[in-house]
Write a structure and sequence with these properties.
Elements lengths: L9 H6 L7 H8 L11 E9 L5 H11 L6 E5 L3 E5 L4 E6 L3 E9 L18 H5 L4 E12 L5 H6 L9 E5 L4 E5 L8 E7 L4 H22 L1 H28 L3 H46 L10 H8 L1 H83 L8 H34 L1
Parallel strand pairs: 6-9
Antiparallel strand pairs: 1-5, 1-6, 2-3, 3-4, 4-5, 7-8, 8-9
Helix pairs in contact: 6-8, 7-8, 7-10, 8-10, 10-11
């Protein structure tokens, strides 16, 4: 490029290129739902509602009603998430595939004692909460305090051997303390976060991870009741399959085999229906469990002596449930494969028997065809005799009619014509049969 050539601005260059229609949307999704920086004492109330896939419009319509009673400022907004700021609280809404979450933030005064029934959404009208589509799945409080306000040692000294199992850890490389027991009191599970020297963004990330751990933990556990239900059915299905295999070995006739095949096909349909009904639930449980463990890893836990960490607690309480779901899913797939193999084996036996019966039928048809051919040849021989007889009668009539023109004996003429007529008829019949046979062979 010479000095006289004007420099082309990058935006002008990009303007000439065709942009993918999803480029901006995908990039915005990448930066969506950032953690909210938190400063000072804070009460966070997190609600999660399990819903169907068609409640998005109803939820957005209900969100618009929230601002009718408050002066709302939309900080960020999209089709799947929204953040509102009011004078009484800050609310964040997120729409996911199976659930939607509502997180309320309310600042606390230093030293303020919280009543067990206090929430961060006390200023919200109860009718608005009851209008949220779906069923409540998670309700949790995160109480954020500083270590100057509440000493961690006071929490540890209040624990007794007979009290609830407390899960605790230092997080963010020792910058904060977290305490919880994952129990539900007054409808809410609770986390206590004691901030020692976390930054505002670290605090926001920590709180977001805690509510996500609780959300994904409960969503993952949705697979456990399904696994128990399917497990009881699988036991019956596996027992029925074993009995059917015994029936296959004891089958004495094709009818017995076809009856077993019908029952086996019905069992295969039930298995495939169960697989189709539970595949998503088990897959989602595994994905949610992975998210729980990922969020725990991001906390960067440090052990507090005498108390289990979040990782240890999930390994002991959540992992067995996830292993149960995985085992049931694997048993379903194995039962489906076994039913398919045995159905194919039995179907092969039935097909072989059908082929044998078809061969017997073809043999009988060939035998009847040969018999019919012999009868036809016999009929053709009789036809030659009949045609010869009628032909000789015609010759006799002609000889009698022309007797005045010649003096030959009519009987002699008739006798001489008989072999000639018989030969012509036999020759014509044989030639016609050869022609038909040649046409049939050309057609095949």
């Amino acid at each position: 490029m010479t000095a006289d050539t004007p420099a082309m601005h990058p935006r002008l260059i990009l303007a000439e290129l065709e942009e993918h229609p999803l480029r901006q949307r995908l990039n915005n999704e990448f930066h969506a739902r950032p953690p909210i920086p938190l400063l000072g004492a804070m009460l966070v109330s997190h609600l999660v509602f399990k819903h169907s896939a068609t409640t998005g419009e109803a939820e957005r319509a209900n969100l618009s009603k929230l601002c009718q009673g408050h002066v709302c400022t939309a900080i960020e907004s999209s089709d799947s998430h929204l953040m509102l700021e009011t004078g009484a609280f800050r609310m964040r809404w997120e729409l996911h595939t199976e659930f939607s979450s509502y997180t309320f933030f309310r600042p606390l005064v230093t030293g303020e004692e919280l009543h067990p029934d206090v929430t961060a959404f006390d200023a919200v009208h109860p009718e608005w909460l009851s209008g949220i589509p779906g069923k409540l799945m998670v309700a949790t409080h995160v109480e954020l305090r500083s270590t100057d306000e509440i000493n961690p040692d006071s929490i540890l000294s209040s624990l007794t051997p007979n009290s609830r199992t407390m899960v605790a850890a230092k997080v963010a490389d020792g910058a904060a303390w977290i305490f919880t027991d994952f129990k539900i009191d007054n409808g809410f599970s609770r986390f206590l976060v004691l901030n020692q020297h976390m930054t505002q963004r670290q605090t926001g990330r920590t709180v977001q991870r805690l509510v996500e751990i609780e959300t994904y933990r409960m969503m993952a556990l949705l697979g456990l009741p399904v696994a128990k239900e399917v497990g009881r059915w699988l036991y019956k299905g596996e027992k029925q399959l074993a009995e059917l295999m015994d029936c296959i070995g004891q089958a004495k006739s094709p009818d017995d085999e076809r009856a077993v095949l019908g029952t086996l096909s019905a069992l295969a349909a039930e298995v495939e229906h169960s697989v189709a009904r539970t595949t998503f639930r088990f897959g989602a449980a595994s994905a949610y469990h992975g998210l729980v463990m990922q969020r725990i890893d991001e906390l960067r836990e440090q052990r507090i002596s005498g108390l289990p960490t979040f990782f240890e607690f999930m390994q002991r309480r959540l992992l067995p449930a996830m292993n149960t779901c995985e085992a049931i899913a694997r048993r379903q797939e194995e039962l489906s494969a076994r039913v398919a193999r045995n159905s194919q084996l039995l179907r092969t036996r039935v097909d072989i028997e059908l082929e044998r019966q078809n061969q017997e039928l073809l043999g009988q048809m060939n035998q009847r065809a040969r018999l019919q051919l012999r009868l036809q040849e016999t009929v053709e021989g009789l036809s030659v005799v009949v045609l010869t007889y009628y032909g000789s009668q015609l010759v006799q009539y002609l000889a009698k009619g022309s007797k005045e023109w010649h003096h030959l004996n009519t009987d002699v003429i008739t006798a001489v014509s008989i072999p000639l007529i018989a030969g012509l008829v036999a020759w014509g019949t044989r030639r016609m049969r050869k022609k038909l046979a040649a046409e049939e062979g050309a057609g095949h």
